[in-house]
Amino acid sequence: MFRHAALLALSFCTLPLIGQAGDQLYTATQEQLAVTKVIIAQENAWNRADLDGYLAHFKDAPDTQVLLAGPVRGIANVRAMFHLNFPNKESMGTMENSEVEVRELGENFALATGKYKLMRSKKGGGNTEGVFTEIFEKTPRGWRVIFNETM
Question: What's the predicted TM-score (pTM) here?
């Protein structure tokens, strides 16, 4: 499992630079890899229908924010909103992230963007896809999401 996650993380972070010769690869920093591992852990928790495991990667703070239909602030409100909108495995479906890019924003912050696909039965809400943006903060407990938006 870890080997698969590490290979997946590496595939996200070793993309050729645009405008560079085809044989030159972009090498991710340790911090970019650490954030990518969090995104993979989030996806794995989601796909196990472990909503609390997914939310464990968010910072437990009153200013943690998620934008879906509107802004939701504070981890307690974020948790309540997710449990309301995704009450069971069928409503959660299976998530697949792609084209994940991580950019460091100073020493303790990072920006992650990518695409997602959510595969669900019609009864569970149907399939959907879009893009996501997450801002991470490096905390004593590791990298945690402080802002999340999916469109």
Answer: 0.81
